[in-house]
Amino acid sequence: NMLEEKIREDEKNKVKKTKERKDKKTFENLSINLININGLTQTKYAELEEMFLRKEKELNLVCLTETHLKQDKIRISKDITEINSKRDTDGRKGGGLMILHKENNSIKFEKVPNVEKEILEIEGKCMDLKIRTILVYFDARTTPEGKMRNLEIK
Questions:
Q1: Do the Cβ atoms of 97 and 118 come closer than 8 Å?
Q2: pLDDT digits over 28-85, tens only?
Q3: Is the pTM of this model over 0.90?
Q4: Residue 113 has what DSSP assignment?
Q5: Residues 138, 145: Cα–Cα separation, whole Å
Q6: Are 74 and 40 in contact (CB under 8 A)?
Q7: Mind listing the pLDDT tens digit for each residue in 135-152?
Q8: How many CB atoms lie within 10 A of CB 94?
Q9: For residues 108, 95, 55 and 112, what is the CA-based torsion angle, rounded to 10 degrees?
Q10: In a 3-state reduction of DSSP, which class is residue 83?
Q11: What residues contact residue 150 under an 8 Å CB cut-off, 6+ apart?
């Protein structure tokens, strides 16, 4: 019967499409983590990598604030992508933003150019999703200078 044959063909196609989707799927979970690292050191980086960037079936975007990095002094593993925004050496120790994720063909982010060092913006594709992530470091001072700085950042 033609109808039965059509139904069988449709079922085969559904199974095939489902299998293709499963083969494409690399990760089971996507997490975006925000951590005030209060000074990124090699030891803290090793802990972050172990906790968030080595899990097999997970993809973690790790967003760090207060890296306190003004030049490169942390050795990032070669299979980890690092995108950062560092303060100029202006005397203040705080600040510094960084986003980390493990290398994978299904992830492609680019840093959005920005003159403001207190904003780190990335956009791209992750597991076929268009994603834009904006990480902002606001001034914690309650002085008029701190409030004015936050208005500039906003």
A1: yes
A2: 678 899 999 999 999 999 999 999 998 777 788 999 998 888 666 789 999 999 999 8
A3: no
A4: P
A5: 12
A6: yes
A7: 998 888 899 999 998 998
A8: 15
A9: -10
A10: strand
A11: 138, 139
